Amino acid sequence: MDEIKDSEYFQETPYTEIKSFFDSSPPLKDVFEINRKLEEFMERNYSSSENKRTRRVVCITSGGTTVPLEQRCVRYIDNFSSGHRGAASTEYFLKAGYSVIFLYRRGTCQPYCRSLPDDPLLECFEITDKSNIGVNPAHSEAVKKAVSEHHSAVIEGSLLKLPFTTIFEYLQILQLIALSMRSLGSSAMFYLAAAVSDFYVPWETMTVHKIQSQSGPLDMRLAQVPKMLSVLRKDWAPMAFCISFKLETDTKILLEKADIALAKYKMHMVVANELLTRKEEVIVVSKSGNITVHRDKNQPGADVESPLIKLIVERHSEYIKDSGS
Ligand code: 9Z3
Asked: Which InterPro entries does the entry link to (predicted)?
């Protein structure tokens, strides 16, 4: 069994490490557009003026981050995540009345698209006569449901989708989102299901051009990605309700690791899951004890996210009540 060292409990990420990560990251391309979308979204969903809606807002992160090996990137290291957890959770949070900022890896599973075939454009549509195109009847129910539910979330303005690819983009956008949600106080929630790289190549030490293979075996040293969870809790959005995920493939260390994350990063909940059984059950770890949440096996197609989000919403309501807002 992996030995978990005491230092893992007590070491906090030094601010200098976090600052140097951001200072040395390549600048975010669409920063103005992202900030504009965030401002518009917050204005629509949360305002102190009485005649406007005041809603709970959750930032859901989804999919894996990449670590480029070259600045003009041909090769990269990836973190596994299909995005199913984030997409399904988005649907359940919207159903529960939350507004959702969905920070997702480009190309991964999207809300309301889970029951569509792998290649929806080509498989769901067919040529009906010479000039028209229609929905293949085999998929018409799934398409109708996906389109109408997605459209109502978009028209209502309760779903904002922001894509990322690299670890640099992910952490920079997460910071922008957190700072824009700061004023929501305890109505804000972070549900951090993205699979985030632990190691990366700092931009300034990265080769610009494609690494050449004739130089023999590749020998490279990866730096540790500073953990941003503590700075999210302490500085970016100190009143927000924060849930992180812990993924392991060895069940023997899963709960121990989740306990460490709960204490070290002062999370309100840690959702512990094992790779092979992640769609069947998760264990919610919090100060008040552990709760195992299962998918309802008697209902075909039932998701583990359904009871999971129900539990989280209950806990968030208690948190809002206790914090007096
Ligand atoms: C998770 O544990 C997610 O539940 C999964 C979902 C990635 C397993 P899918 O997208 O899978 O439905 O295919 N996410 C967090 C993974 C992670 O990187 N956690 C870090 C860690 O375990 C903490 S931030 O150290």
From this structure: CoaB-like_sf (IPR035929), DNA/pantothenate-metab_flavo_C (IPR007085)
